[in-house]
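Write out the bound-state structure for adenosine-5'-diphosphate.
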Amino acid sequence: MSDGLWQAVLGEIEITVSHANFITWFKHAKLLEVNPPVAVIGVTGVFAKRQMEAKYKDLILSTLKKNGAEIDKVDFRVIESSKRQAQTGRSGGAKASATQRTQNNTSTSLLSPPSSLNAKYTFDTFIVGANNELAYAAAQAIARSPGTKYNPFLVYGGVGLGKTHLIQAVGNAITKQNNEAHVEYISSETFVNEFIGSILSKKKLSNKYRGADVLIIDDIQFIAGKERTQEEFFHIFNALHQANKQIIMSSDRPPRDIPTLEERLRSRFEWGMTADISSPDYETRAAILQSKASDHNIRLDDEVVEYLANNVQSNIRELEGALTKLLAQCEVRNVRPSLEIAKQVVSGNGRRQTQRLTPRSIVDKTARYFNISLDEITGPKRDKEIVEPRQIAMYLLRSELKLSFPQIARCVGRKDHTTAIHSVDKIQSAIDENDEMRGTIRELKERLYA
Ligand code: ADP
Ligand code: MG
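---
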């Protein structure tokens, strides 16, 4: 099946749905066939099938169509997940290495799952620029001698800027030097879920975390406010730290800005080294584009690179998404990437054109969408009809322009940046939980870039 098409579709869906939903529902989904007018998507279980049908059918259909597939129907089919295949040892090719790794790793039982790291996230493929050089240098130092320096190590920065890539690169480098090393990578969402699962089933949380030589925990801000999970994590943290095991974390903001993070955890996070990753500058964006294109054995013309790097500025994930989409279009039409197609890709999907969007226009358009005045949305009133639009405006200032929380607060006439943090979190959870909010945000984003 055309991998390029599906990659492009996933790229777009990833920025439409919440991160948690994307990981849960789309990570293992595959495009099995496009047989006009029907496309068949493979999912990993009956439950996933039902969820996908109920929640994401339309989104998948419209995104496939937008990327050139001539279909008007999407069907779902249950397939066996690649993880199960790897564990039963029936897989060949790429999966074999994961199985092999499990077998070579004598310190863990044969039943332990293959490494949780994604092999594509390495130092080799990580482009270094002014925006990430400090984090990169620290990560390399840790890979050379884990558990000695910079422990814990925490990388923070906005979405799509390379945190997951970098912290997994450390894990991959360590595993490469020493395949006996027990490296555990986990997102804090998964950690929270496993922990809740262990409470429900009255079984102890798996020992794999306490037994790790290197524990990598992604998006640690998710454990904030979850008291018992924080407690459990605190103990794991202490046990590992005392035994000089390396702890690596990522967060979307510095520990001091994570509300409801327990003080004792906050101070521990700051014991070691924290480094931020910020938005890449033009040169770094251009280098990333060339590097990703050459992974596909394609050399982009300078004018194409220039255009994309100038017009997709917000984050690297979107930049990669634009490139994937460009390559998919070229594959479908069987032509070389050109400036013309690059323009179509970027403007056809207006949301990528962050250039014209200003804080002012976000606040303005959000107010107009809800039929309230600019004075109201930035004023002191606390009526529900005004508070929610204000929170949504703050969410959009964060998601679209990556403004800092103090900047966001100022844009809507607030003094306290914790109001902004709180509002952004609140809208994010609402998006995760209800279709209506998701619809509102999607519509608003369409207007912002219209
Ligand atoms: P985050 O975890 O900060 O949200 P990711 O690590 O998932 O971001 O990065 C998003 C995408 O951008 C990934 O595909 C990643 O490989 C790519 N990426 C990010 N930073 C870089 C970089 N410096 N060099 C190459 N690719 C990068
Ligand atoms: Mg990440």
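---
Residues 82-114, 350-354 have pLDDT under 50 and may be disordered.
The pocket of adenosine-5'-diphosphate (ligand 1) is lined by residues 125-127, 132, 157, 159-165, 288, 316-317, 320 (CB under 6 Å).
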